[in-house]
C-alpha cells in the first residue's frame, strides 16, 4: 500500500524544506518467520537488512547518493527500537516502520520520545504480525488514540495496494483461508 514510501517521502519533504533537522528511522528487529541468527558488523550493518524497505524508499525519494550523504552527516539516523529508551527526539521526523511487530511497552517507549518540533509516523499492518499471538501493541495503540485530536490516522485497504495488480488478488485469496 505504500506505507513506508509515504512516510519516507513526507520526511524527506520536511528535511529538504528545513522544517526539521533530521530523519530518524526505527524498526523492530523481528524476522518474518525465519531466524537469521547473529549478524556480523557494526550497528548499522546489523540493522541494515531490517531497514532495506526504508532505504529503497529513500533511494526513490532522494537518490542513493543523497541518502548516503545524509547518513554520513547524521541528517538520517538509524536508531533501533532497542536503543531508543532515554532519548528525546527533537527537530526530527521519526519513522517507526513495521510497528505491528512492537509490543505495547515498546510503542509507549517510542511514542514518548517525541521532542519539540518533531513529528512521528508509525506504520504497520495488523495482518503481518510476526510476534507471538497477542503480543503486538499496534491495534491497542490505534484503539487508545483514535479520537485524539493531535494524532492523525490513515487506514489503507486492499484497494490501496500500489504493487503489482496481482498482489490484491493474492491478499484476497489469503483472507479466504
TrEMBL record:
Task: Give the superkingdom in one word.
Answer: Bacteria
The Gene Ontology CC terms held by the record are: cytosol
GO MF terms on file? Answer: ATP binding
Q: What is the lineage of its organism?
A: Bacteria, Pseudomonadati, Spirochaetota, Spirochaetia, Leptospirales
**In what residue span(s) does the PhoH-like protein domain sit?**
1-174
> What Pfam families does the record tag this protein with?
PhoH (PF02562)
What InterPro entries does UniProt report for this protein, alphabetically? P-loop_NTPase, PhoH, PhoH2-like
Protein's UniProt keywords contain Cytoplasm: yes
Keyword terms: ATP-binding, Cytoplasm, Nucleotide-binding
Supply the name of the protein: PhoH-like protein
Location(s), subcellular: Cytoplasm
Keyword Transmembrane in record? no
What is the similarity comment for this entry? Belongs to the PhoH family.
